[in-house]
Amino acid sequence: MKFLYKTGIHIYALAIRLASLFNPKARMAIKGRKNWTKNLSKKIETNSRYIWLHCASLGEFEQGRPVIEEIKKQYPQYRIILTFFSPSGYEIRKNYPLADIVSYLPFDTPRNAKKFLKIVQPEKAFFIKYEFWHFYISELQKQGIPVYLISGIFREGQHFFKNNAWGRWYKKMLFRFKHFFVQNKKSAELLSSIGVNNFTVSGDTRFDRVAAIAAAAKEIPAVEKFRGQSKLIIAGSTWKPDEELLAAFINNTSNVKMIVAPHEVSAANINRLKQMLKKPAQLFSNIQNNVPGECQVLIIDSIGVLSSLYRYGDVAYIGGGFGVGIHNILEAATYGLPVIFGPNYSKFKEAVDLAERGGAYAIHNQNELNTTFKSLLENPENLKNSAAVCKKYVEKNTGATSVIIKKVFNKQHSLAH
What secondary structure letter does DSSP report for 120? Predict the structure, then answer.
C-alpha cells in the first residue's frame, strides 16, 4: 500500500508539472516549490523554537488562524511556520504577519518529509481539518514530534472507516496523531469505532475567528450611506449561477438594495456581472463617500472587505452552492443575518445545523430564491426569528481555540471527551 501511495504522489506531482504548462494555478504550485530546501533553510533561525501549522488552503487557514493568534499571545517564545498545499491559500496569505515563515508544503514523499523536518525541527505540529499526508505524519511520529488535528471532521465514507486493504492502511495513520480536536460527536463516534480514543469534541475554531472579526469590523460610511433606510441583501462569494438568480431577483424588485461581492473580482467578471443588471449599479471602488441616490446595487470589486460588509445587511446570500460547495456562512451568521445558499451544502455542518434550526435556507431555483427573500424581507417576525437563531448559534459554539490551547500546552491536567 505504501508503494501504491508513493507512486500516486509521484504521478500527481508529475500531472501538476504537466498542467503548469498551461494552467496558471498549477504553475504557481510548481514555481512556489522550486528550490524549497534552499529557500526554507535561509528563513529558519537557528536556535529558535518552531511550531508548524499546515493548511490545505484558505478555508483551513481561517480555522488555524485563531490557534496561531493565541499561541503568539500566550507563548511568544515560539516562532510559527505556516504551510499551504494550494496556491489559492499561499498566494493570499504569504504575508500573514503572525507567521514567521510561510511556505508551500513540498509533495509528500519520504525524502521531502525527512528534509523538511530536519530543516524546521518543530516542537509541535498542527494539521487543519482533514490534511492526512502519510510520510509527513510517519516522520513526525518517528522523530517524537507530537502532531494534532484541529477542527477535524470525519465521515463514514472516508478511507479510514472502510474494511479493505486500502482502508486498513489509511487507518494506521490516525494512530500516529497525539490528539484529535474534532468538530462534532459524530466524528468522535467514528474515531472510537475503530479504536482511536485520543480525541476531544472541541468544536470548530472558525466560530472563534468570525466572532473576533465581528468584534473588530471596520465601519464603511459609504456602505451605510448606500443602504439608507432600505432593506439590504449582502451576496458574498458569488459565482455565475448564483449571480444569474440574484440579478433576476433584483431586476424585478424596487424596494430592496443589494451588495454583490463576487468570488472572482477580475475586470472581465465584474463587467459580465454589470451587464446582467438592469437596475442602477456602482462599483465599490468608485463610490468612496459619493453614493448616487438612484444606485440600487453595489458591486464589490476588491477583496478583504466582505467580512465587514455583513454588519450592514438584513439577509445574506452565500455563493458556491450550485458548484462544489458553499463558501463561509459564519461570517454573516455572526452578525445575525439569515443565510440563503444553493443546494450543495450537506458537507458543511454549520449550514446543515442552521437549516434545521430555521436560520438558513437552501434554494434550488429562481422561484425558491424569490419566495425566500420575500418571506424574510417582507415579514419582520420571520426575519427577527431567523436572525436570532444565527446569532445564538455562533455565540454557543465559540471556545474551541481555548480548549485546544489548554490541552496542547498542558494548562490543565485533563479534558473529558
Answer: H
